[in-house]
TrEMBL record:
It is found in: Cytoplasm. Keywords: Allosteric enzyme, ATP-binding, Cytoplasm, Glycolysis, Kinase, Magnesium, Metal-binding, Nucleotide-binding, Transferase. Catalyzes the phosphorylation of D-fructose 6-phosphate to fructose 1,6-bisphosphate by ATP, the first committing step of glycolysis. The gene is LOC100776597. GO terms for molecular function: 6-phosphofructokinase activity; ATP binding; metal ion binding. It catalyses: beta-D-fructose 6-phosphate + ATP = beta-D-fructose 1,6-bisphosphate + ADP + H(+). Residues 336-347 have a biased composition (Basic and acidic residues). This is Phosphofructokinase domain-containing protein. One of its GO terms (biological process) is fructose 6-phosphate metabolic process.
Amino acid sequence: MYGVKRVLGINGGYRGFYARNTITLTPKSVNDIHKRGGTVLGTSRGGHDTKKIVDSIQDRGINQVYIIGGDGTQKGASAIFEEVRRRGLKVSVVGIPKTIDNDIPVIDKSFGFDTAVEEAQRAINAAHVEAESVENGIGVVKLMGRNSGFIAMYATLASRDVDCCLIPESPFYLEGTGGLYEYIEKRLKENGHMVIVIAEGAGQELVSESVQSMSKQDASGNKLFQDVGLWISQKIRDHFAAQKTLPITLKYIDPTYMIRAIPSNASDNVYCTLLAQSAVHGAMAGYTGYTSGLVNGRQTYIPFYRITERQNHVVITDRMWARLLSSTNQPSFLDSKGDNEEKKEEEAALNQLPDGHCSKDTSLANKEINSIYPTTC
């Protein structure tokens, strides 16, 4: 429509700008790519040189760059935009949000999220069937979500077969009153089986037994997480084996890359078309340094600095998480443990009060008032 005759695909992610050949894209060559999973252009993680990328853009005479990916990719796009601006080049740099984790801020959702949630249902359904088929059966499903538990939360709400959902934003503990072991035992006695969904980034502080293992990073600078699904499955087996009162059968399912590799569903296909057309119209109108995305249901152009300033996380004080707790009947893992910690803090504070200060008004209800208006006897 705009008369553009030459479109290049960069093969192999950011490093492909200067390390690999380009692919000529035509309407015919991209005609069926929406029916395939993965990426026809290939991808890479980290290790790219922004100056070399912009050198390549400049040398090739490229005047519009469309960069597709998640929060890390958008940060890279922002860096390229800043270098382009510093050199005074007439090049539009545009981001298109694509990540199943849904961890890009500001926008309503990222492309790929709906498809991931839909596919996660298959794994949860399989875990439910396996758990239901045996006495005291437990199905554990690990889903993607390094720092954001959106897939786990929405898949849980959509499934209605999940009894416990564990995400990075909501810390949990295993032992003691209100802990996971106690809830599992209670649920098995009530229902005879249960399904647990856990995001890959949940409980990492419990998994890691050494500081060294937590300090390892991948090529993009992300922490290398340990397999929390295998870990929690073994911990549950060990706990009930030691108890010897409730024999369990546990099945562990990890559909991580099966979820990421499937073709997008109809909802995501429509959304992707909207994102792509909006991105092109913006660049042709003369805009640059933005990500195309839906905000409150409307197509918008969001400056890179708003996209890269933070990650999108599940807000556990929000209604959606409250709806999940209501659906699963799981504990919040905060109340009893939080109360104990509050009491310990109060006792420690009381022991440190100097002589002559009143300690009668130290209840949790009056804690905030006392911090503003300290009372003395």
